Amino acid sequence: MFIPQEFIKKKRDNLPLKKEEIEEFIKGVSDGTVANEHISAFAMAVYFNGMSLDEKTNLTLAMKNSGNTLSWDLDGPIVDKHSTGGIGDIVSLMLGSMLGACGLYVPMISGRGLGHTGGTLDKLESIPGYNVFPDDKLFKQVVKECGVAIIGQTSSLAPADKRIYSIRDVTATVESVPMISASILSKKLAEGLDVLVMDVKVGSGAFMPTYELSVELAKSIVEIANNAGVKTEAILTDMNQSLAYSAGNAIEVQEAVEYLANKRVNPRLHSVNMKLCTSALLNSGITKSEDEAIDKLEGVLNSGKALEVFAKMVNMLGGPSDFSENYEKYLPKANIIRSIFSESTGIVESMDAISLGMSVVGLGGGRVRPGDKIDHSVGLENIINLGNQVEKDTPIATIHAKDEQSFEIAKKRVLSAIKIGDKKIETKEIYEVIR
Predict the structure, then answer these.
(1) H/E element holding 28?
(2) Residue of 38, 187, 296, 413 marked catalytic
(3) Which uninterrupted H or E stretch holds 351?
(4) What are phi and psi of 218, to 5 degrees?
(5) Domain coordinates in residue numbering, the chain
(6) Is 183 considered catalytic here?
(7) What is the number of other CB atoms lying within 10 angstroms of the CB of residue 105?
């Protein structure tokens, strides 16, 4: 008979956990025989003592197997990308379409906004009719016909993770690298992937507070996923400023469409997106060299094929058939759209990216409480870059707000988040790749 207290005691005393014990614990999490107190105590023991690679792998696989796993009958590699989140991170919308156009299949299970970070599902729900929770049959059909489908996590996918995360969230154990790794990968491995690319953010807007912890998380995920049989590499990318020109749901969707249409391409965003796409192509064996991968990606962008894939996915999941041509007609617009300006002369020296993200939340573009309704029209646009020279009255950002009061609050937050000084700084997008 499995006794949760004995299992927790072993981890408390930093003794090795057997595969069978971990599986029994997760089985109890799923069927309710393991209490919330047991989960809380186990999470705290892991927080302080960590886990071996075998323990992390076994925990991840047990959580994955707590629900349904997807299987595919397709003529190409199954790949996905996961980001640890940030400001203006719209890579999923372009990457999925571009990889689908290159012959890969991308069943992307995405999430909602969390804290200061935007959520891919919230962005997609700014498209009228887009169904982020299709049934399995439609999901598989869209992946097969488009090459990509971006949807939300159903209750049948890694349900043990959902319960464990809700308890970690209120017991100060969210920052545990083994638990974060298992939480991310249990859902990703349940997708039936051949290849996974991890985008681990670094900087003032990153989930992990230091570079060292970002590296630790990246290494942990790469080790576990490869140990579980999914070819994975992690790329550490910059989040000291907004990745895109914009931050906010409908505004980001518009920028993603304009990127795919080659109308407006942010160089920082393009650099990160191409690096992640290239990683997926190389690790899936579709291309043999980085140059070949870049040529293939530029080909699907320049030909319009990637935009066609995005448009077809949107339509098959309930959105307008002419969305890619007439996105401005369909996306909601804020009542007030107005620029704010620098109050001093100098160089944009630093940004508090979390404050920028929270300014979008304050406008109504994110949630303060889990059930909050989102205003998809609000956010920031034309956000200035680090290192830019500014004069008094140089535009810093354009605020999209529902009313004057929320505009003024956002203006104060944005201006206080952006520091103007006299120090020249160098910026980068890619820090390192962990294989």
Answers:
(1) helix 19-31
(2) 187
(3) strand 346-351
(4) -60, -45
(5) 4-49, 79-327, 332-421
(6) yes
(7) 25
Radius of gyration over alpha carbons of the chain, in Å? 22
For the stretch 312-356, pLDDT in tens is 999 999 999 999 999 999 999 999 999 999 999 999 999 999 999
How far apart are alpha carbons 419 and 346 in whole angstroms? Answer: 9
Tell me if residue 284 is catalytic. Answer: no
For residue 113, pLDDT over 80 is answered with: no
- Indicate which residue of 40, 183, 186, 324 is catalytic: 183
Q: Given this chain, do its domains 79-327 and 332-421 carry the same CATH topology?
A: no
83 is catalytic: yes
Which helix (H) or strand (E) covers residue 411, if one does? helix 404-417
- CATH architecture for the domain at 332-421: Alpha-Beta Complex (3.90)
d(CA 201, CA 171): 24
79-327 CATH: 3.40.1030.10
Average pLDDT value over all residues in the chain: 94
* Cβ count near 143 (within 10 Å): 24
Q: Does the pLDDT at position 377 exceed 80? A: yes
